[in-house]
């Protein structure tokens, strides 16, 4: 330590006593205000820990004079955020969902809000990209079981599909033709062969020709004579390239044998109508959305009040 | 080993040192007048800039210089910068740094001495101090005097004026970040945002403390720039220099100097300490170049006045370089100022500085005020449509950076396909999409592109946005159309 300390003649300041290759360091005194600033920060730090929660105790930290908590701050921020969004949510609650495209600003906001709500509520089944999976509909494409306009999508989200607790839920039923003994396995094979020809996945053959007869007698009631399905019944179009469970022969046979009956919960009871509208707008915006055509709806619904959705056509698969 | 008391006895060498009080004397002269001019110009720029108006049409603010943090825009007269163009600001900072290097290598610590805000405001505060307390000796006397009504009155009035300047300084600062007339009205009616008042308060206090009390302490202990400059100065740099070869040996007082002149060659310095008295940082320039010298040149003014009175040639203290000093000592003429300024170092700095500036001007003049950003959806990469086609989706952002609403046509090149967006279904596909983008805004849309499923797994495509107005202009983005592997 202090070895080599001496007064530097040029400055009159003492050196620290070290020397590196002939270079020495002056021990220049710090300014006093610097020291006072250090003391001031220490005083501030003590005051800070008294004012804010800081000191760990057995049952939690000290509350501090301010009683500040991050939870309170969050709830205050959420409150102000929901106050800010109030006009938007009010406008959304009032507008009939099919009229949303008329207000491009509201529509845009609805799509944004819907995207956020989708990530919280829907991705578990439909996937974060809404691409679905086996048995879970891909919402990006242009194939809709129940219809793809805003109002129909809203209805589906609001009441769900085959969701027993909601009396207005959408219901369709693909019977288990094989399991319930409605069709013998050979005929199921024939129908599968025929169904595959509908979408061009297989060439017509003898089996398909036999299957066409069975199809006309058994399946056409719901899926239509041409196999194009029926949205009123939720019966899928069998002539397109989109398959909810799979379009290979094995899967079709499985579908025919055991039937299908996926469930989608009704969100009307869990989310407020404005959020359901936002979800409908988001799903509609994913590229497969269809235009709302008022005439396509049943006559009785035209008089229905906005917000009070009339009972949907309740179809029990009546073959 | 040194004796123990030498290590513990800090009586002589304190760990901490009280600030030595500085009471600079008033002086007049060419450099002082130049400092007045610089002070007027710099303070006018600072206080007046936010009030300048600049017409940008109905869609943008009319403030000439505005940093609009809320809307993320930076306006400087005819230039508008968006956040993604922040590299212009980075470029300005690079230019500022290089400019400082250039100025330092050409004329020494001119920034410190004349234009640094710390120097300008301290100078202003010093004038206020002299106006209220009187000059050097009166100030010192008042400082030594016990606290009494007179001293309290003077201190209160001095601090009030300082605080008023501080409020004006902090007040002017916030006008750069909002419409100045509106914010001024809000400020005085008490309706301005709390952050505005907080900013004014903080800047008032920093101005008050830095200008009134810390002064040269900021330069010596806080500012990194003097240290950097110390490394940048060389034997060609202009520094304020006491010409020891002329001044030494010093003679104490005019009379003795005259007496001694006939016997032995006395120096020109009469040790009147005028140079020390006027120094705002309280140093003695005769000890040579030092960190405390901000080269404000007031000691030159002071010494020249004394030299004139004692009938000696001026510039015993003067701006000079080490090289010139050597020449002068040898009785040779100094190098021409032009040759001194135009040397390798300054030319290199100037070239880089000018290149950065020209590059920025060039890109500013040629930048497209329309940008198209494309993000290809990867989740899912492709979607099969019911007719078997493959669909890709893209999120496009159209930035209309002009101050007028514009309509853009978006098309896709490189693939035969159908195009639509989030507002319509695949049954309403088109060959081109039209978007109206409001002035100075970004429009975000989802673009859907469908093409037959037979084709290469990846097809390079171009998404083109064309502006439909007299200036035209277009932006092109590269993307890929992706098909499933098995569909080839």
Major sheet attributes of chain B = 5 strands, antiparallel
Measure the end-to-end span of chain B. Answer: 88 Å
Number of strands of chain B: 15
**Total number of domains of chain B:** 3
Helix amount of chain A? 40-55%
Task: Assign the structural class of chain B, choosing from mainly alpha, mainly beta, alpha/beta, alpha+beta, or little secondary structure.
Answer: alpha+beta
| N/C terminus separation of chain A | 101 Å
Under the CATH scheme, which class of the largest domain in chain A? Mainly Alpha
The 3D shape of chain A can be described as elongated
Give the helix tally of chain A: 9
If you consult CATH, what is the topology of the largest domain in chain A?
Answer: Cytochrome Bc1 Complex, Chain D, domain 2
Low-confidence runs of chain A: 299-319
Largest pleated sheet of chain A:
2 strands, antiparallel
Helix-strand topology string of chain A? EEEHEEHHHHHHHH
Q: Give the helix tally of chain B.
A: 18
CATH superfamily of the largest domain in chain A: Cytochrome c-like domain
SS content category of chain A: mainly alpha
Give the averaged pLDDT of chain A, no decimals. Answer: 88
Using only CA atoms, what is the Rg of chain A? 35 Å
Sum up the overall morphology of chain B in one term.
elongated
Give the tags.
heterodimer; A: 319 residues; Cytochrome Bc1 Complex, Chain D, domain 2; two-stranded antiparallel ribbon; two-stranded antiparallel sheet; 9 helices; disordered C terminus; B: 488 residues; alpha+beta; Immunoglobulin-like; five-stranded antiparallel beta sheet; 18% strand; elongated
